[in-house]
Amino acid sequence: MSAMSAGRYWGRIAAVAALALGLACKREERRFNATYPSAPAYASVTLDTLQPGVPSPELTVKSPAEGNAYDIAQGKLLFAQWNCTGCHSHGGGGMGPPLMDNEWIYGSSPENIVATIVEGRPNGMPSFRNRITANQLWQLAAYVRSMAGLEAKGPSPGRNDEMQYKVDEQRTPFRTPRASSSKTLPAKSQRP
Amino acid sequence: MIDRGATRHIWPTHVAVQAAVTFLTLVAVGTACTGGSEDSANAKTLPRAASRGTAGNDTLVARNGIGAGKITIPGAEAEDGQWLRPAKDYASTRFSGLDQITTANAPQLKLAWSFSTGVLRGQEAAPLVVGGTMYVVTPYPNILYALDLSKPGGPAKWKYEPQPLAAAQGVACCDVVNRGAAFADGKIFYNTLDNQTIAVDATTGKEVWRTQLGDINHGETMTMAPLVVKGKVLVGNSGGELGIRGWLTALDVKTGKVAWRAYHGGPDSLVLIGPRFKPFYETDQGKDLGVTTWPPDKWKQGGAGAWGWISYDAALNLIYYGTANPGPWNPEQRPGDNKWSSTTFARDPDTGEAVWAYQVTPHDLHDYDGINESILLDLPWKGQTRRVLVRPERDGYVYVQDRTTGEVLAADTFGVVNSTSGVNLQTGRPVVNHEKEPQMGKVVREICPASPGTKDWQPSAFSPRTGLLYIPHQNLCMDVEPVEANYIAGTPYVGMNVKMYAGPGGHRGVFDAWDPIARRKVWSVTEDFPVWSGALVTAGDVVFYGTMDGWFKALDARSGALLWKAKLGSGIIGQPVTYRAPDGKQYVAILAGVGGWPGAIVSAGIDARDSSAALGFANAMRDLPNATTKGGTLYVFGLP
Amino acid sequence: MTWAGSIFDTAGSPAERIARLAWFLIIVSAVTYLLVLAATGIAMRRARVRRTQGELADTRPETGKRLTRNVAIATTLTTLILLVYVSATALTGKAIAWPLNAQQPLTIEVTGHQWWWQFRYRDSLPSNWLTTSNELHIPVGRPVRVILLSNDVIHSFWIPELHGKQDLIPGHRNTMWIKADRPGVWKARCAEFCGHQHAKMAFDVVAESPAQFAQWYVRQLASALPPTDSSAKHGYDVFVQRTCIMCHSINGTEAGSNVGPELTHIASRPSLAAGSLPNTRVNLTRWILNPQLIKPGVRMPPNALSPADMTALLDYLETLK
């Protein structure tokens, strides 16, 4: 035991504890009873970048599920339970297009994905309006983005317990979505 | 505590312990890391199942099957140079009596003309030829083209666009394919993806009637080619992966009204099982088996569509067809035999009444649909002539059954099979290998054949001249893990993670010539990719098929020698046909456009980094995008 | 939520053995404890007596030997008592794990979910397999083989009046045998920490005569009938066109999802939310509107329904007896 003063000793403990709490707090927060932005908030998000005249400034809705490990994990659970895996597999696609690549027909931002789930899309994506609550929609959108490597590594899910059919989302390589088909590039803080 | 006063240079205990622990941890981590790397397509060492059909013809000796010239095709008609339905005749032989193209001149085949359908998805249809017109049905959006064969270049006369619902693409399990149309009574009949059967006037291209038969909100689609029998258009639905209620429906040829509908689950009254029903095996006998062999009400989401082939025997007045897999794939959610999934039915075409039934795969564990073609033959069997049907099945066996009673005379493997160890001919039931039975929470590996079976829908052809059955098929095995499936109408109801890969030998495709009386292979050709196209055989003793990387091939029907091949614009999964054009010459037509379940990686842009994609097929087809691209063109070949 | 449930209120022979073991351990421990207390008291008194008499600690060798002998005896006794404890426990454990002799046991598959219970009764005829949630009925006097499975994490099955605890381990199948020797209604619970709402993962157990059990079984097998009055019809529409259909199943309707408990006969269940709430209309309303206020962390989300829709939905659910 080195000859450290009690004050310095406890000071270091306090610093480490504060660091750990500060870093992990937001990522691991579980907001069971929070109210996430609901339909009107994302319904006014414009999908098309082609706007006659001068394009209006982008209206973005902040997704509360971004960067939250619990929400992304819940999104993963819902993605399997509600048969999204039936059409999109675990990101590779099948009846539906792949979600783990960098091709986004209808946009890759969280509000675009939420809109896709709620509206459905003409070539076969069902509409889940009124069937999935707002919180769950944002959770699903965050998980879909993590499949493509658009979420930060920390909150993304780790190894599956199921049969190993792909690299887990934490290790999916980040890929920039094509600028023409996504509203915004992910903010710097969301890149790995 | 270290005694600082000591001068001995011995490692202090706690440091030694730390070093040891670190070392051991590194060893453990190193060992763990070298095992279980990211999945990639690999051909593992797989068990050799006892297969009766050993491919063995390296010397390409020309030989006939035992039954050459001795097998009669029931209801055979004189060759007229047309192709009125995908299977050519009601016995489903896909045999043409045209003999201008022979083994001698086949090497000179050349492209006569081609036609782009404008649709770049999997082309599974058989082009029809009626008189001087060819009819082609495309995948979604199911355009029907009529091409004028009397003019050079086969220009389009008209096209009919039914405009099916775009949302139907969202409930089509295995690409948005269509297997073709049928001609009868001056009309062309075919199905659209969104569950309509349409009758179009063959001359004018005007719609005569259309009937809505199913609902995409229940996961139903229609992809099969109808069969017209005695004034009735017979059609069935698809959707075993979406918890549908499977059925076969008969529509009146003139009006399109539903004449009868037989479901494949539920009480006998819905399955049209009545006093005439006499199944051969005890396991298929009993009341309301379509209810009692399912958990309560689960037959209502039990799948068992009829998306494959139908044959017809006019003398016996019976139609023969098979039903698809039960839903969900996860067998633990549906204890019981799950009748009447994976079942061969013989029905009266006038009323739909079932006359006999044989459940090929009770309590299916591996998505072994029973929809494959039944080829009707009258052949010599153990000293007598028997009226049989021959069917190369999904589960890996070539079944020879008495088509008057349903008795199974033989069931022999034509590929690597370890999911079962044989078919008990006394009870009619396959002997299940329980080691390969999927269990919740466990991964079961190296199940052969994989879900597409040893052979899927791709139809085989039979030549009475050689007495051989020409079987295009695959060689795949798989790992599976069941998960809980949730039925939400209109969404997939599967409950299985699947990963497929090449079977023993490393080749994924096989094309066999099988002798149904000798019950073994006579010659065999292996291909890199699954042979997903249909087969065609002619009286010139030439066999045609196509590969998924785009080679259309002609082989000698007796020896399997390659006579000719041509590289087409896209992979081939369609059905080749041959006809006599108005100019009197014989031509062979084939659609090229890769897709279907194995080709979705190209036609639908699947990402194979997820080896469970496309229900596990993507893993086995990772290299397909390097070998071919999307397409949708009709090619017609003829002699110079 | 009532905390009724006692391992001493035994209704089956395994529970009786456990109760006997419990009493044995309690009594022996109590006696030992009292003896130790007494010995400590005597020792303290003697020490005080000696000090008041002015004597220091007794250092005579005979005393040392005597004390050593006493310690040795006490240590040996303690070890023996512990050995007896271990043997008694082991023997009891072995005895209760033994399969009960049965010609045709009733087999029930129990699947633990976070945080509710699913029961699937097996039968020789697949169409008689019954799936229910959160409510377990068993016939009195008939051995029941319980197969324990888990859908997610480790749970533990515990009916204190009937048996000990047995874990539900994902990817693994455990088996236990229970038998009720008398009728009763009990509250059983999960006995292995399994997440946020482990404490509220209970289920109702009803042991009844074989005739009553058969009646209950037949009623439960029946599918839900289509609603007849207009409010219930609207309630059915609410059920199948909103969030409910994504997670719940009702036999005989379009709803077939297994994410949450099946609800075919929800109106006849004694409790809601895995034994947390008595089954009343008010509780059901509170639960549907916001389950997170009652069981925070539960997978069911809040459902913002208009009062008209809620009334209709409740009317429909009340028809599901």
Account of the protein in words:
- The complex is a heterotrimer of chains A (192), B (640) and C (321).
- With 192 residues, chain A is mostly helical.
- Chain A has a domain at 39-46 and 59-158: Cytochrome Bc1 Complex, Chain D, domain 2 (Orthogonal Bundle), CATH 1.10.760.10.
- Chain A has helices spanning 6-28, 39-43, 69-81, 84-88, 110-119, 134-147.
- Chain B is built from six helices and 38 strands.
- In chain B, the strands form ten sheets. Chain B has a five-stranded mixed sheet with strand order 1-32-33-34-35, with no helix packed on it. Chain B has a four-stranded antiparallel sheet with strand order 2-38-37-36, with no helix packed on it. A four-stranded antiparallel sheet of chain B has the order 3-4-5-6, with no helix packed on it.
- In chain B, strand 19 and strand 20 form a beta hairpin.
- The longest helix of chain B has 22 residues, at 13-34.
- Chain C has 321 residues and is an alpha+beta fold.
- Chain C has three domains: 13-97; 106-221, Cupredoxins -  blue copper proteins (Immunoglobulin-like); 230-318, Immunoglobulin-like (Sandwich), CATH 2.60.40.420.
- Chain C is 39% helix and 19% strand.
- Chain C has helices at 13-52, 61-97, 210-221, 230-241, 244-247, 281-289, 307-318, and strands at residues 106-113, 116-121, 130-133, 135-139, 144-150, 155-158, 165-168, 174-178, 184-190, 202-208, 271-272, 277-278.
- Chain C is elongated and about 95 Å long.
- The two termini of chain C are 23 Å apart.
- Chains in contact: A-B, A-C, B-C.
- Chain A binds chain B through residues 80-83, 85-87, 89-98, 100-101, 103, 120, 122-126, 162-167, and chain B through 36, 38-39, 166-173, 241, 443, 479-481, 483, 486, 488, 490-494, 497, 499, 600, 604-615, 618-619.
Number of strands of chain B: 38
SSE order of chain A, one letter for each helix or strand: HHHHHH
Strand content of chain A: under 5%
**Shape estimate of chain B:** globular
**Strand order within the widest beta sheet of chain B:** 1-32-33-34-35
Q: Low-confidence parts of chain A lasting 5 or more residues at pLDDT below 50?
A: 179-192
Instruction: Estimate the helix proportion of chain B, in percent.
Output: under 10%
Beta fraction of chain B: 25-35%
- End-to-end Cα distance of chain A: 39 Å
As a whole number of angstroms, the C-alpha radius of gyration of chain B is 26 Å
Q: Low-confidence parts of chain B, pLDDT < 50 over ≥5 residues?
A: 1-7, 31-58
Sketch the major β-sheet of chain B.
Answer: 5 strands, mixed
The class by helix and strand makeup of chain A works out as mainly alpha
Number of strands of chain A: 0
What is the fold-level CATH name, i.e. the topology of the domain at 39-46 and 59-158 in chain A?
Answer: Cytochrome Bc1 Complex, Chain D, domain 2
Mean pLDDT of chain A: 82
Q: Please outline the major beta sheet of chain A.
A: none
Oligomer: heterotrimer
N-to-C terminal Cα separation of chain B, in Å? Answer: 98 Å
